[in-house]
Amino acid sequence: MKAIVEKHKQFMKTKPLDSRVFMIVLLAGIVTTVLSVINTVVEGLGLGAVLSTLACLVVLLVLIIVAFVFDKEAICHILLCVLLNMVLLPVAFFYCGGVRSGMITYFLTGLYLIVPTISNKRIRLVIYIMSLIMLSATFELAYAVFPEWVTPMSDEAFRFDVLMSFILNAFCIYLVASLTVKAYDEKNEENEELVKKLESMTIHDELTGVYNRRELFRVLEEDVMRASADDLYCLFIFDIDDFKQANDTYGHVFGDKVLCEVANCLSEETRSLDEGEIAARYGGQEFVAVFHDDDFDVSYARAEKIRQKVEKLRFFENPEFRVTISGGVDRCGGMRPRYALHKVDDLLYLAKTTGKNQITRSV
């Protein structure tokens, strides 16, 4: 029993809304017809009423087996609408009291609950119109043309039948409405997650996960360039030493891993955007960080710490490989982004040309 419940939960999570609604309609229909069979027997409406409700039950059982055992949901959904609205309900209408019964409620359920959940728009419209015509004609024939064909109900049976149909259909509508709201909420959550993911993709480097060049310039233009004189921002730029040689020797897959590990060293030592800092990939093997400290020496010490962390990196695929970086640090508060980057780029060049694996700083 537990396995069946779990399988049902999995089905309800993975299937689209129309399949889930179809499943609920079938199950609710089976429960309804079973109760209707019992009701017709108790009320003594005759063999025709019993057989017509039994026919509904058999059809529903066959459809649920074919739909979900043999994976024929779409065709079974269409067959349900056609058989129910154009054959079974019209016949049952005559045998189960006509207008003096709860059958009108089932007519409405067939029209506004079952047919609208067909996924194909054209088929849905055609079946809806045909069902509407058939059920309207059945009502008119039973009420005005051939009222003598209708199996009558007693007042007590009529009240009971209407109450039963109202409760059963109300419960079915509640289930479908709840399912629809849940599906809407799930879709809304998926859309929100997708929007967040897309937003993240637009500001993050796809390979390393740190921020990209676009987001770096946004921070430089909106925060750093507008900073007051006593608000210290420092720009740190570095380049992986001899990275092309590493790519050529060990391959680009290993080179990508080196980039990711170096980026991780940088991001671990950089605070969040909310604190005015950012770690970003500037180019192929170039990275940039904006530090927001109270003292320039602190920013330089942080840059040096990153260099030391990178120098200690080891890779089990190529244990003999060593990675180092060269970089430069300078104050950048109130400066235009390109001018600030040009200044630290000169310091990076100085570090490269005077020995590598070092961080140079402004005076």
Overall description:
- The chain has 363 residues and is an alpha+beta fold.
- Helix content is 67%, strand content 7%.
- The chain contains 12 helices and 5 strands.
- A 5-stranded mixed β-sheet has the order 2-3-1-4-5, with helices on both faces.
- Strand 4, helix 12 and strand 5 form a beta-alpha-beta unit.
- It is rod-shaped and about 110 Å long.
- The N and C termini lie far apart (76 Å).
Shape: rod-shaped
Query: Termini separation (Å)?
Result: 76 Å
Number of strands: 5
Strand content: 5-15%
Mean pLDDT: 85
Q: Helicity range of the residues? A: 55-70%
Radius of gyration: 36 Å
Helix and strand content put the structural class at: alpha+beta
How are the strands of the biggest sheet laid out side by side?
Answer: 2-3-1-4-5
Specify the number of helices: 12
Q: Regions with pLDDT < 50 over 5+ consecutive residues? A: none
Order of helices and strands: HHHHHHHHEHHEEHEHE
Largest sheet: 5 strands, mixed
List the helices and strands and how they pair.
Blueprint (H helix, E strand, L loop, with lengths): L1 H13 L2 H27 L3 H23 L3 H23 L7 H12 L6 H25 L9 H49 L9 H12 L9 E7 L2 H8 L1 H17 L9 E4 L4 E6 L4 H16 L13 E7 L5 H17 L5 E3 L2
Parallel strand pairs: 4-5
Antiparallel strand pairs: 1-3, 1-4, 2-3
Helix pairs in contact: 2-3, 2-7, 3-4, 4-5, 4-6, 5-7, 9-10
